[in-house]
Amino acid sequence: MEGIGTAEGLEESTKTILNVLNNSRNSLLICADQYWPSVAIGIDVFNKAMFDLKKRDIKCRFITEITKENLAFCKELLKIAEVHHLPGLKGNFAVNENEYIASATMKNLQLLSQVVYSNSKAIVEQHHFFFENLWDKSISAIEKIDEIEKGIVPEIIDVIKNPFEIRNIYFDILKSSTFEIMLILTTSTVFMREENDGIMQSLIDSSNKNVKIRIITPTFTNSENEIDNLNQNKNIEVRHIESPFDAQINMLVVDRKYSLIVELKNDTKQKFTEAVGSAVYSTSKPKVVSFVTIFETLWKQTELYEKLKDADKLKEEYIRKLRLADKAKDEFVNIAAHELRTPTQSILTFANLLKYDINKNESIEAIHRNAKRLNVLIKNILDVTRIESDKLLLQQENFNLNDLLITVIKDYTRELKKSHSHKRHIKLHYALQKEIRGPDALVYADKERIVQVISNLLDNAIKFIEKDGLIKITLKISKGDGPNGYGYAEIIIKDTGSGISEEILPHLFTKFSTRSFQGTGLGLYISKNIIVSHGGSMSAENNKDGKGATFSFIIPLIKTDLIQNSFGVSV
């Protein structure tokens, strides 16, 4: 008869488990946590029964969590059956053709004291279904074992809401540090809490292993003594940001491989687990690099503040620029946090929906779209880093600027028709003006970077046209005193949008200058530096008729033949 029951005590539980193993005729499926491999292989009575399955040609599949601690046991399991890895696996059950057993808890190398048994057909079928779903979500044990043995860190982006789990990860990645820790503490309460929770002691322990530790925190009098004590350690350096951060977060980056961004839900609480909300943990290289870039940008800014302290006389304009930079820093942290959080959350949401969607195209498209958005942000941050470190390399070649413009504008025209035709009508018009003879506008430049500049200017023009509008692109070929006496090419992009804010205009080509909620304000800064690196220049102004703005840039030509005519081409 079908039924369900419980086996109590070590002897009865062991007997029940062995019966299920011995009763398996064709297949056995086991799904169990990280402690199960040590029980299955490390306890003789189970070890013998497991290897007996192989002798009887029973087809077995096992799912478990593979760790450094159970690695040897998992290798032994591979001799018996196909094994998969599933991180964070909880609970334990086994099912054959007709029977099911389960245990709520399991301990390393210890017999089970209680198991649930059932031969109910419905329960057996249900757990076959559960197993197959988990099998599809897991990865090969061979792949995971290879990762562990080679020290490969798998790429993870995980949103964590359990405060105790956040704290455990915080300590774990601190303890794993081998050469560098970057830490941003945004409030004085956070700084004091970190000391009370033992995190500061963990930092000191890491510094004693010659790990270089850098901390950025606002200036607060109630934490001066603690900071002075830390600064006496040769491997720890604490620097101050002049004003508090608007966003209350705790940012930790370890060895440029791990990042943990912790949201502070209630900053008045003294315990870490009571103060934190959610957190984003990542080992994804592009994401971690983006946070490294943010940290390094703020670290450089602290150097300016240190110099400012030592200076006796500072001009008002210099002080004003520093304050603007400080404001831009806060705005950038908030914008970057939003720009990173929104697509990341969308990717996680749609990835989760893939499990349930019959038609997966919409979710896949959304994941792809948000991944591209993250990629653009990361590329921009990396470009800023290259520019500031004088490492922006150009892959230059000879090409026709006119041909390049025609190709780019055709692409934009096609995308505008496809994406915006039902909302607004934006027309692109391209005109080429010639004042010299010979082939059209030959330049020696980095084609991909020039496309990046043109695309950025067109994107800006399109973004600030609310309804219908016109974007006029003009290429002017002029004789003049170019770098080699060859003249120059000028590209002019004039739109009928909302124009440039008077507040933004004086700082238009500096970092983080934006009045749009759809960007970080890095595009124009990067674009101008690209043009300057080609020996050119870039400028912008509002149109005299009050409608829209005009952006232009020039780069040198490589030909000297002069012609007299000019003509226009509409795209």
Q: Could you give a quick summary of the protein structure above?
A:
With 571 residues, this protein is of the alpha+beta class. It has helices at residues 10-23, 36-42, 44-55, 71-77, 121-137, 141-150, 163-175, 188-196, 199-207, 224-231, 272-275, 285-310, 316-353, 361-388, 401-419, 447-463, 523-533, and strands spanning 4-8, 27-31, 59-64, 82-85, 92-95, 100-103, 114-118, 139-140, 157-160, 180-185, 212-218, 236-241, 249-254, 258-264, 276-282, 396-400, 426-433, 442-446, 469-478, 488-495, 537-542, 549-556, 567-568.
Report the strand count.
Answer: 23
- Which structural category do the helix and sheet elements fall into? alpha+beta
Number of folding domains? 3
**CATH arch. level architecture of the largest domain:** 2-Layer Sandwich
- State the name of the first-level CATH class of the largest domain: Alpha Beta
Report Rg.
31 Å
Mean pLDDT: 82
Number of helical runs? 17
Low-confidence stretches: 560-571
The coarse silhouette is: globular
**What proportion strand?**
15-25%
